[in-house]
Amino acid sequence: MVQNSEIPKLTLPTDADYRNRINRAQAAMKRNDIDVLAVVGVDVLRFFTGLHGLPVTRPIWLVIPQNGEVGFVSPGSEFKEINARCNTPVVARWVEWKEDVQGPMSHQDALAQHLEKVVPDALIIGIDFNGTNGGIIETVKQKLGAERIKDITPLIHELLAIKDAAALNVIRLSCDVIARQTEASIAAIAPGVADWEVSLASFIAGTRRQAEIWNGNEEQSPLAHGMHMSGSGPARTARCHAAGAGRKMHDGEIIQLCRCSTGFFGHLVGYDRVIQVGPTKPSKEVRKIINFAYEAQEAALAMVRPGVTAGEIHAAATKVINRGGWKNPILHRTGRSIGYSSWDGHEIKDDSPTVLVPGMVFTIEPGIYVDGIGGARFGDTVLVTEIGYEMLTPFDLGKEILKNN
């Protein structure tokens, strides 16, 4: 199935969209008695400002007080890049060399000086622990006082749970890109071809499509981010994330494509397909796994609507899988919230109490994995609507193996 070749319109969040997200964060801060946020995760920086694609070797802090100016505390290496890529100002920077007027020479010193300037009476400083590493958190605790630091990862998950219209526009672009990647992957699949060549075809196609959408933008790289997992054969499909490596495919096998956490402008979606290699049908045992995996996804999708819990969706999928009679065939959850990042904080798994509401975006991707035979999953990304769900990924693409199976 060849997708529409027309290049979709590039519609990114505006400064007003970012301001609305900051307003929501400030309201949440007041509810939770947090005086100021200092966030550092790349997904969160993009969510609040549109900053995208910078290296993460040095921490870049975004400071959000309950009232007042929002701005970056930047390493000297990145402040020009920040100014070029988004409209949120750099309000402080730290350097690693001597200057005529010497400034702070560590990220924690620069952050401490700026916080003292803008929120001198701050008692609670919220930091997204999930967005950085323990070493960075520890240096900040030592500088600012551990008793003042609060992990605001749950607050971030609350903000990310429901997608605004601006995010959905970009998520739809991600779905367009993933369709190109999948089409190119399928075209590369043949007996004698190595798995890595399928992954490479995916990467190139995604890069080309992103370049078309960016249309010459000088600040945004089109290089296709995300996972381009491709694993063929009984042993590698029985694992959920086999890398695109050197194994060569054989006629009558299947290859599992995992294009999860792939997207445009850092807005990520999940997508999985099982593809037949060559003209010979897979074995009866493999076809059974494929059919049950598809039925499990259908059962899960049938449950997606407001008011249903994520645990109920998972239970619907596992009920189908358990009918197959395999021993321990499940390796992962049925899905996760996605869109602003690769995981936005909610999971479709056993007994999850998360209640679906309109505006949430989830992957639905139950899988079956049987040692000695193989594995399969069909994964798609859906938007929860007022009455059910909207399929965002190209649902019919890559389903040829189900015909006459």
Describe it.
- With 405 residues, the chain is an alpha+beta fold.
- The chain has two domains: 15-160, 3-Layer(aba) Sandwich (Creatine Amidinohydrolase, Chain A, domain 1), CATH 3.40.350; 162-402, Creatine Amidinohydrolase (Alpha-Beta Complex), CATH 3.90.230.
- The protein has eleven helices and 18 strands.
- The protein has a six-stranded mixed sheet with strand order 4-3-2-1-5-6, with helices on both faces.
- Strand 5 (125-127), helix 5 (134-144) and strand 6 (149-151) form a beta-alpha-beta unit.
- The radius of gyration is 23 Å and the shape is globular.
- The chain starts with 14 loop residues before the first helix and ends in a 14-residue tail after the last strand.
The CATH superfamily of the largest domain is identified as: Creatinase/methionine aminopeptidase superfamily
Secondary-structure element order, N to C = HEHEEHEHEHEHHHEHEEEEHHEEEEEEE
| Main beta sheet strand tally, sense and closure | 6 strands, mixed
Rg from alpha-carbon coordinates = 23 Å
Helix content: 25-40%
- Looking at CATH, which topology of the largest domain would you report? Creatine Amidinohydrolase
Give me the secondary-structure category: alpha+beta
Q: What would you call the quaternary organization?
A: single chain
* CATH structural class of the largest domain: Alpha Beta
Q: Count helical runs.
A: 11
Distance between the termini: 18 Å
Number of strands: 18
Shape descriptor: globular
Strand content: 15-25%
In spatial order, strands of the major sheet run: 4-3-2-1-5-6
- Give average pLDDT, whole number: 95
Low-confidence runs: none
Q: What CATH architecture of the largest domain would you give?
A: Alpha-Beta Complex
Tally the structural domains: 2
